Amino acid sequence: MRLLPYFSSPNRLLLACAAPAAAFFTAFWLLPVVQLIVLPSRTGASTYFAVLGNPRYLQSLLQTVGLSIVVTLATLLLGAAVGITLARYRFRGRQLLLSLLTLPLSFPGVIVGFFMILLGGRQGLVADLSEAMGWGRTTFAYGLTGLFLAYLYFSLPRAIATYTAAAGAMDAQLEEAARSLGASRWRVARDVWLPELGPTTLACGAIVFATAMGAFGTAFTLASKFEVLPITIYNEFTNYANFALAASLSITLGLITWLVLFVARRLPGAVAVGA
């Protein structure tokens, strides 16, 4: 089909094709981000540093970062162990087990939080069992333990799927060569597995950390005794209509998450890290 004169130039055709994407990007990303960055200035430049000047906001930030780091480390450790095992050993029901382990990928954070309440909430299974044993109703869903387990439950399927694929693609000849030279299991893990899985660990860790930092649905369901920054932001603009402060806290949260992803992309051996 012959092109119209206006589209005869490749550059004009490219611009015409890119125009809808540029309009969408400007309307739904660029303008809200600019508004978010400018908003704290309406109440003074000090609002940008509110997280450092208010103990409550600083505690919320530190709790969020600390929880995200612990969840990331636990996710990587368990995900690597399960993923390598599934990749190396063939047994009946392996695919079914992998499907079941990665099933929570389809659950939103609210459902994960609901699962945790069913397990460790006031009317949960653990409370019923502990009461039946005469220990009173034990609950853990609404504090640090509940959040940690829920975040881990939410993140672990991603790590298992990633490590299973990465371990399955490792060069088996390297491991065979190391074993033929008399290397122990520890030496094989240190000299073969770690270098081979290093980029996967870096990328997976960055994504798990970013996901934990910004998790809202799970935190909204469970964080009644342990405040994290997404809930702090939500409370500021919904309960107190403090949009400037909410924007400042959002900028802080976004900068930390972006910085981790940026560093992960720049480290040697890094693979593609998405947000």
Automatic annotation (TrEMBL):
Pfam families: BPD_transp_1. Gene3D superfamilies: MetI-like. The complex is composed of two ATP-binding proteins (CysA), two transmembrane proteins (CysT and CysW) and a solute-binding protein (CysP). Part of the ABC transporter complex CysAWTP (TC 3.A.1.6.1) involved in sulfate/thiosulfate import. Probably responsible for the translocation of the substrate across the membrane. PANTHER family: SULFATE TRANSPORT SYSTEM PERMEASE PROTEIN, SULFATE TRANSPORT SYSTEM PERMEASE PROTEIN CYST. Belongs to the binding-protein-dependent transport system permease family. This is ABC transporter permease. It comes from Rhodoferax koreensis.
